[in-house]
From TrEMBL:
Pathway: Amino-acid biosynthesis; L-lysine biosynthesis via DAP pathway; L-lysine from DL-2,6-diaminopimelate: step 1/1
Family assignment from sequence similarity: Belongs to the Orn/Lys/Arg decarboxylase class-II family. LysA subfamily.
Gene: lysA
Domain Orn/DAP/Arg decarboxylase 2 C-terminal intervals: 18-354
NCBIfam families: lysA (TIGR01048)
Role noted for this protein: Specifically catalyzes the decarboxylation of meso-diaminopimelate (meso-DAP) to L-lysine.
Pfam families cross-referenced by the UniProt entry: Orn_Arg_deC_N, Orn_DAP_Arg_deC
Residue numbers carrying N6-(pyridoxal phosphate)lysine: K49
Organism encoding this protein: Flavobacterium rhizosphaerae
Protein name: Diaminopimelate decarboxylase
Length: 409
């Protein structure tokens, strides 16, 4: 989107503001579909946690997407958006047996990632088809917080536990209809992905009633110019070919599933905030914006890079800035960043603000959360109102205290 459009939207809807470009979400979806066009049955299940606005879910539903969910609340959002339960997969980690049973009762595909729950669930509901999440122990991803396939990871059933897993399936007589892995975000390398795929294929041969093989996500998107990104065309070509030969060996044509979050929505998002103050110190120039990590926590949480542009003065001479938020704690969006000269009142735009930005926002410092706008067919549509002070107090139960009685000794 262009600076002019974004400024207009900030003017119309007020800042700080999240803007999502529907066309970018659609083109990413089509790109993935196209890369795997040689696979007979492809299923793309959008990972709701990346950006869970119901209008975004509806946009993806219109594209033919299914959903990947990690909580019963996300399942409910999906149902509200009109998704059929069988197009939703539920991949929780460490949730209660009760929640899993509740989701299963809704007709949603269950994906179980530990042997304890698998055994309990299989014993009680042997007829409910279950997918199993395997941990192939592949090290992938640049950030240890979002790399989930390694040996110490809490995710998935370890590939080394396969004999125990098979015994549980046999003893309970449960029906395993899918096999899944999600090795974490930011897999750079197609080779690593294919290696993990081999482990999954090998494991899949032990299960006779499979309907799908789910490779999760891990597609890396670019955050800055010349950034490395997953070569989706190359992955599509190689994995499709391998998947098709696997299906021949398996004896049946299965569905190939993915659950991208970032890949579909990251680059579609723009976060716009006003500069309240430019503060020159002895060591740097701070640009203090009308927002903080309550609205966009990724840089503080795991050092994510978000490209920042001064859309009020895009052609200005570049200077070095530390862009900081108003939260009363260290709250740094970017240090020593080259940005076109900033004046107080200028609007800054953060790129890659579609995934894990609004969905991780909070009310810390008792601040309201921003509005969200979907840019669709040349027009900005409000898809979430800015919160108000009432949203801050809504669930508080306010106690009254009698005036303290002075006690005399
Ligand atoms: C978070 C998550 C995803 C999406 O990951 P991205 O890096 O955003 O594509 C997919 N599957 C599962 C199980 C997840 O937890």
């Amino acid at each position: 989107m262009e600076a002019k459009q974004l400024l207009q939207l900030a003017d119309e809807f007020g800042g700080p503001l999240y803007v999502y470009d529907a066309a970018k979400i659609q083109s990413q979806y089509r790109k993935l579909e196209k890369a795997f066009s040689k696979v007979g049955n492809l299923r793309i299940n959008y990972a709701v946690k990346a950006l869970s606005n119901i209008s975004i879910l509806k946009l993806l539903k219109q594209m033919g997407s299914g959903l990947d969910t990690v909580s019963i609340e996300e399942v409910r959002l999906g149902l509200l958006a009109g998704f059929a339960p069988e197009t939703i997969i539920y991949t929780p980690n460490g949730v209660s047996m009760e929640e899993i049973e509740e989701v299963a009762a809704l007709g949603v595909q269950i994906n179980i990632d530990n042997l304890s729950i698998l055994e309990q669930f299989g014993a009680k509901h042997p007829k409910t088809p279950v997918c199993i999440r395997i941990n192939p122990h592949i090290m992938a991803g640049g950030n240890s917080n979002i790399s989930v396939g390694h040996i110490d990871s809490k995710f998935g059933i370890s590939i080394h536990q396969l004999p125990h897993l098979l015994r549980i399936v046999e003893n309970t007589g449960m029906h395993i209809n899918g096999i899944h892995m999600h090795t974490g975000s930011d897999i750079l390398d197609v080779g690593v992905f294919l290696y993990a795929a081999e482990i999954l294929f090998e494991t899949a041969m032990h299960f006779k009633e499979l309907e799908f093989v789910d490779f999760g996500s891990g597609f890396k998107v670019p955050y800055k110019k010349d950034d490395i990104q997953t070569d989706i065309e190359e992955l599509g070509k190689k994995l499709s070919r391998r998947f098709n030969t696997f299906c021949e060996a398996y004896g049946r044509e299965l569905t190939l599933a993915f659950e991208p979050g970032k890949f579909l929505v990251s680059e579609a998002g723009f976060f716009i905030a006003k500069v309240n103050v430019v503060k020159q110190t002895t060591s740097t120039v701070f640009a203090g914006i009308d927002s903080g990590f309550n609205h966009l926590i990724r840089p503080m949480l795991y050092g994510s890079h978000h490209f920042i542009e001064n859309i009020s003065n895009p052609k200005g001479k570049e200077r070095f800035y530390s862009v900081v938020g108003y939260i009363c704690e260290t709250d740094t969006f970017a240090s020593n960043r080259r940005i076109a000269e900033i004046k107080e009142g200028d609007m800054l735009c953060f790129r890659n603000a579609g995934a894990y930005c609004f969905s991780m926002s909070s009310n810390y410092n008792s601040r309201v959360r921003p509005a969200e706008v979907l840019w669709y067919e040349g027009k900005g549509h409000l898809i979430r109102q800015r919160e108000t002070f009432e949203d801050i107090t809504r669930n508080q139960v306010i106690m009254d205290f009698e005036p303290a009685v002075a006690t005399t000794a």
